[in-house]
Design a protein that fits this description.
It holds the Pfam family TetR_C_22. The chain is mainly alpha-helical. The protein is built from nine helices and no strands. The relative contact order is 0.10.
Length: 219
């Protein structure tokens, strides 16, 4: 066997191993979303993935390790999503447009990965995920404050902090309702969420030249 062939074999094994890990994580996402973290089991995840429990244990020692790996990958994606969604905006951007763009980005991520909500807000998530989520939450609040600073340049720092907490709380409450529905009804809940956030912020942002107050579409 040539030296090149010897080098290629570990790469192929590594690639196969990564594909198997992705397969197991996708199966775990389906199980966690359906049953929640507490009720899920490694046997159920292996069954969903179409492999034996022994194969699963070659890659993960237990359910918690699977949840941690899945959670960390999702949080990396979420950080990319909120980095794009919560970039400072031009102060002349209509409030409805700024709110709508941020909400659409986050809703798209959570609808694509419903397990993120199940893992991050379940009652018995592993401690390491809880710690990562707390760090993500703090960073997310900071980014919301940065976004609000472009919309509320004259607001006191303490006021922006309070407003950021309220905006995130409203979003999380609305997200739970959005994820509980599908199709046109889901779209309707997304619009209601945008409306609530816009109406909350509108009195603080105030009227700006060339930007009339948002109007609510008839439903």
């Amino acid at each position: 066997m040539s030296a090149n062939q010897e080098k290629e074999r570990p790469r192929r094994r590594q690639a196969r191993g990564e594909r198997r890990i992705v397969q197991l994580l996708e199966a775990a996402a389906a199980v966690f979303t359906t049953t929640g973290y507490t009720a899920a089991s490694t046997n159920a995840i292996a069954r969903e993935a179409g492999v034996s429990p022994g194969t699963l244990y070659q890659f993960f020692p237990n359910k918690e390790a699977i949840a941690i790996e899945l959670g960390e990958r999702l949080m990396r994606e979420m950080r990319e999503a909120y980095g794009e969604a919560l970039a400072p905006v031009d102060p002349t951007t209509p409030l409805e447009e700024a709110v709508g763009a941020a909400v659409d980005r986050f809703i798209a991520f959570n609808c694509e990965h419903p397990v993120f909500f199940a893992l991050m807000h379940g009652p018995d998530i592993p401690g390491r995920i809880a710690e990562e989520h707390d760090a993500l939450h703090a960073t997310l609040l900071s980014r919301i404050e940065d976004l609000l600073s472009s919309l509320l340049p004259d607001a006191a720092p303490a006021a922006r902090v309070r407003t950021s907490h309220i905006c995130l709380g409203l979003y999380k409450a609305g997200l739970e309702l959005v994820l509980a529905h599908e199709g046109a009804e889901r779209d309707a809940y997304v619009q209601e969420l945008k409306h609530v956030l816009t109406r909350y912020l509108e009195p603080m942002v105030g009227a700006r030249p060339g930007h009339p107050a948002p109007t609510r579409a008839a439903t």
